[in-house]
Design brief:
This protein folds into two domains: 214 residues, HUPs (Rossmann fold); 92 residues, Tyrosyl-Transfer RNA Synthetase (Orthogonal Bundle). Helix 8 links the parallel strand 4 and strand 5. With 348 residues, the chain is mainly alpha-helical. A three-stranded parallel sheet has the order 1-2-3. Strands 4-5 form a two-stranded parallel ribbon. It starts with 18 loop residues before the first strand and ends with a helix. The chain has 13 helices and five strands. Helix 4 packs parallel to helix 13. 51% of the residues lie in helices and 7% in strands. The structure holds adenosine-5'-triphosphate and magnesium ion. The site of adenosine-5'-triphosphate has 21 residues, from helix 1.
């Protein structure tokens, strides 16, 4: 086990090989939040002691209506984002979820393990459904159960995610524990969420109390991984802030969500801690700090977005990579889902 990644399976006797699973929904273009909270960290975990499995979770995207042609394009674009950022299909398994039927199958089995009361506590559903909960798809409500299946179909021990997904990984643990208890087995691991680093919750550029999201309403509230240099500079320039300059110490960011967000983004992009950013830029006004941040974002994102564009010129190659990844994924997931069915008493 690599240092810092303790396996937390006190409730199970079984040992599980260190394996990472994580996914991103093709529900729109990738954002800086997806990059700093997810993809950049996936790349860092690749090639170490973990087997790494990364997925484009298209079955989650369709929990809200997607234009079919646009969904295909967005699925390939998320795959291109993974590849351009450094996910190597030789070192990691990369595929889109719907190609591996084990996800949907185990998702159903887990719908019969998870409790309605658990789903009712999920804050993401409340945020996404708003006042219109009755009109949402049943899939959006049951989404965390499918996410548990995504993770547990591979007996994944660790899931790197942004802070917003913590509750869903905790629910995954609840499902694993209840399954193990109800069937008297030590079959599923209690997966550890890995939520580390300065930019685990990148906030909306227009409202520092809301998360930056692909599916957010306005393009000005997020940085897309495919934005060009001028657009990135413009979006940071227009990002909401308070009038005070950057504080001289971290404490000074308390109750300044927009300022804190820009410091965290700078830290995430540069590999510095927020403290180091403040040590370097404390006292700077926004007229100084915002252009420095924009330059840094362009420096980091431009090579990735040009590689994404190159990859998107050859969609057949992306499809070939995902089809091969799906084959490798099935080889792991199918026996686990078969065993789950057998444990539940389903004749195969
Ligand atoms: P949507 O608005 O459709 O939910 P999203 O931008 O939230 O899209 P997801 O596909 O739901 O993206 O999440 C993919 C991964 O990116 C998850 O690990 C999630 O925690 C992470 N992530 C999403 N938004 C942020 C953010 N603002 N900051 C840090 N991590 C994020
Ligand atoms: Mg999301």
């Amino acid at each position: 086990m690599p240092p810092g990644f303790q396996q937390d399976n006190a409730m199970t006797e079984a040992t599980f090989a260190p394996r990472v699973f994580s996914g991103i929904k093709p529900s729109g273009g990738l954002t800086l939040g997806n990059y700093l909270g997810a993809i950049k960290r996936f790349v860092e975990m690749q090639g170490g002691d973990f087997e790494t499995i990364f997925c484009v979770v298209d079955l989650h995207a369709i929990t809200v209506w997607q234009d079919p042609e646009e969904l295909k394009r967005a699925t390939r674009e998320v795959a291109a984002g993974y590849l351009a950022s450094g996910i190597d299909p030789e070192k990691s398994i990369l595929f889109n979820q719907s190609r591996v039927s084990a996800h949907a199958e185990l998702g159903w089995l887990f719908n019969c393990v998870a409790r309605v009361g658990w789903m009712n506590r999920m804050t993401q559903f409340k945020e996404k459904a708003g006042k219109n909960a009755e009109k949402q798809s049943l899939g959006l409500y049951a989404y965390p159960s499918l996410m548990a299946a995504d993770i547990l179909a591979y007996h994944a021990t660790h899931v790197p995610v942004g802070d917003d997904q913590k509750q869903h990984v905790e629910l995954t643990r609840d499902i694993a524990a209840k399954f193990n208890h109800d069937y008297g087995v030590d079959f599923f691991p209690l997966t550890t969420p890995v939520i580390e680093g300065p930019a685990m919750r990148v906030m909306n550029l227009r409202d520092g109390t809301k998360k930056m999201s692909k599916s957010g309403e306005s393009d000005m509230e997020r940085i897309n991984m495919t934005d060009d240099a001028d657009t990135i500079a413009k979006k940071f320039k227009k990002a909401r802030t308070d009038p005070a300059p950057l504080p001289e110490s971290l404490d000074g960011l308390k109750d300044r969500p927009e300022a804190k967000n820009l410091v965290d983004i700078y830290a995430g992009l540069s590999g510095m801690s927020a403290e180091q950013v403040i040590a370097e830029h404390g006292g700077a006004g926004w007229g100084q700090f915002k252009p420095a941040l924009a330059d840094l974002a362009v420096e980091k994102l431009a090579p990735i977005s040009s590689e994404m564009a190159r990859l998107m010129d050859d969609p057949a190659e992306i499809d070939r990579i995902m089809a091969r990844g799906a084959e490798r994924a099935r080889a792991i997931a199918d026996p686990i889902v078969s065993k789950t069915s057998e444990l539940m008493g389903l004749l195969r």
